[in-house]
Design brief:
Jelly Rolls; single chain; 13-stranded mixed beta sheet; 2 helices; 173 residues; FecR; two-stranded antiparallel ribbon; globular; mainly beta
Length: 173
């Protein structure tokens, strides 16, 4: 199944992948041993690590069909993505019902809730585009944005430590 994302005209090829380690490995990802019942970590290749909150609804994708994961479609809960631009070519995207967050190399968290997606940058820069309007912003370290399905404009803010701690705690950080 193909889905056009609207972000740079990329085509997302969805691979049915969830928490099953055999399926994760077919996309080049392997599960790290569980440290907690609250999350799981996928090592997709040197330079790409994805920590996913337990119970999240997601799919790993290979947009360019080269056998490497280059995006995650996150429908619910949170994911922490760590991308080393020196090792991962072409960047990485997190696609949610409300937003597309894309980078070349950084560390950021995305929380997909009912009707809203929140993006927090921990290192580097992340471009976030609102699916409903195409509006985009670029976030730097410590900045976040909440994206809804409506037509309200995006507002970049510096997240307070309590909000950062709450999200990162869910991801074991």
């Amino acid at each position: 199944m193909n889905q056009t994302t609207g972000f740079l005209g990329a085509v997302v090829v969805l691979c049915a992948v969830g928490a099953d380690s055999a399926l994760a490995q077919t996309t080049g990802c392997s599960l790290r041993p569980a440290v907690s019942a609250q999350r799981q970590t996928l090592n997709c290749e040197p330079g790409l690590s994805i920590t996913i909150e337990r119970g999240a609804s997601y799919q790993l994708t290979d947009r360019n069909r080269d056998g490497r994961v280059d995006a995650i479609v996150l429908n619910s809960k949170a994911a922490l993505v760590d991308v080393d631009s020196g090792r991962i070519r072409g960047g990485f995207e997190v696609v949610t019902p409300q937003a597309i967050a894309a980078v070349r190399g950084t560390r950021w968290a995305v929380d997909a809730q009912r009707g809203k997606t929140s993006v927090l940058v921990l290192r580097g820069r992340v471009a976030v585009n609102k699916i409903s309007t195409g509006e985009g912003v670029t976030l730097g370290q410590g900045q976040g944005v909440d994206v809804d399905r409506g037509r309200s404009p995006l507002s970049v803010t510096r997240w307070g430590q309590p909000r950062i701690n709450a999200l990162m705690g869910r991801l074991g950080q």
